Amino acid sequence: xxxxxxxxxxxxxxxxxxxxxxxxFALMRRMLLAGDVISHLALPGxxxxxxxxxxxxxxxxxxxxxxxxxxxxxxxxxxxATEAMTGVVFAAALALGAVVTPKEDLVDxxxxxxxxxxxxxxxxxxxxxxxxxxxxxxxxxxxxxxxFSTDLATVSGVxxxxxxxxxxxxxxxxxxxxxxxxGTLLSSALIIxxxxxxxxxxxxxxxxxxxxxxxxxxxxxxxxxxxxxxxSPTVSPVxxxxxxLLFALSLVIRRKQ
Amino acid sequence: MQGALTTMTTFLSAxxxxxxxxxxxxxxxxxxxxxxGDCLAIIGPNGCGKTVLLKALLxxxxxxxxxxxxxxxxLGYVPQKFAADQxxxxxxxxxxxxxxxxxxxxxxxxxxxxxxxxxxxxxxxxNIGFLSGGQFQKLLIAFAMLGHPNVLLxxxxxxxxxxxxxxxFYELLHQLQVNRGMTIVxxxxxxxxxxxxxxxxxxxxxxxxxxxxxxxxxxxxxxxxLYSAPAMYYGHTHDHQKE
Lengths: 257, 243
Hints:
By secondary structure, chain A is mostly helical. Chain A is built from twelve helices and no strands. Chain B has ten helices and nine strands. At the A-B interface, helix 7, helix 8 and helix 11 of A face strand 5 and helix 2 of B.
C-alpha cells in the first residue's frame, strides 16, 4: 500500500468519527434529510472547479458554505422549517451543478473516488476533523439545551441563533471532509445512517454519541476492507451498503430487546 | 403576609411596551413596575397576550418600548407545559447536567434543586419524553431553579397538576418568596390562587389594562368587565364585602 493510500484511509476513518458525532445531533435536531440536501450544495462548486482545473475541494467548499449561509438566512427570515428552505436551495444547486460539471467528471463528483492524498491534504483534513470534534465536545451542553427548548436555552444564556449557524457550518465542514471519498450524493449518508443505528440501539444521550461514532468508523473500515475484495471503482457505495446492513441488524436487535 | 418582604426597590420596569405580530398589536403601550420580593400575577381572558408579555419580558420576542431589569436580576423561567420530543435520548439528569455544565455550576446543584422540586432518583433517570404532566412540571421547576435565580417567571404553572400537587407547588413558590426573597411573575387563570399569593395583579384585556393590589383590582365588577362574564369562582368574598 502506498503512503498516500494510507493517508486517504486514515482521513476516511477520521471523517467517520466526525460524521457519527455530527449525525447524532443532526438526528436529534430532525435535520438529517436537510443534511442530505446540504451535501448536494457542493456540486456546482465541484463542477466549476473541474471546468477550470482547480482543486475541486476549493470549489465544493465555496458553494457549500455559501449555500449553508443562504439556508441559515432564509430560515431566519421566513421562519419556515429548515427542510423546506434547504429543499429550494438544493434543487437549484443540483440543477446548476449538473449543467456546469463536465460529463467525464460527473460520476466522480457525485460518488467520490479514492484520492491519493498528500501529507498536506491529510493535515488539512485532520485539522478540519479536529474543528468538528472540538465544536461538538464544547457545544454539546448548549446543543442539548436547545434541543429541549429553544426558549429555555435562550433564557439560560445560550445564543441559539449563533449556535444554529455554527452547527450548520460544522455540518457542512464534515460533508466537505467526506466529499473526496463519498461524493456529493453519498457524503451525507455516513452522517445519517450511523446516527439512525445509534438511536435504535440506545436511549441514553452519552451512549448514543459513542455508538453512532463507532458505527460510522466501523462502516468506513469494513467498507475499505470489503472494497479490496469486490473492487468497486468507488469505495463510497460499499461503505454505505455496510452501514445500511448495520442499520438492518440494529432493527433486528431492537426487536429482540 | 405577601407584602412583608416587599421593598420599594424597582426590580423590573416596563415602559410603553408594545408587542406586535405583523400589524396586529397584542400588547399595546403597557407600563408597569415590579418591586423586589413582589409576586405579580398576570391575568386576563384567553388570547389577551399573557404569555406574549412574559416572553417579551424574557427578551424572547421583539418589542417596542422599554423593558429594564435590575442588573442583579437572574431570571428563571417556567414555561407552559410543552410536548417534549419523545425521540430525544435525553434523561432528566442529562438535561440538568447540561445546564450546570454550561453555567459552570458545581455538580451538587442538581441534587439540591431535585430535593426542592421533589424529583426522585427514578425521575432523574427517566427519558424526558415519557414524563407525566406533573413530573414534567417538576423538571421545569428544577431546571429554572438551577443557577440561583432571584426572579421566577412562571406561565400557567398548574394546568397539568392535580389539586394536591397544585397546593404543594404554590406552597413551594411561597416558601421561595418568603425564605429567599424571590420575586415572582406569574401568569394564572386561577383567581383564588392569585388572590392568596399575589402582591400585585396586572389584568390584560382588550380595554384598558388594570394594575394594583388584588383587593383593589379583583372586584366582581372589574372581573366581569375583564372576562366579559360574571366570575364563576371567586374565593374570599368576605374580603371584598369589606370594600
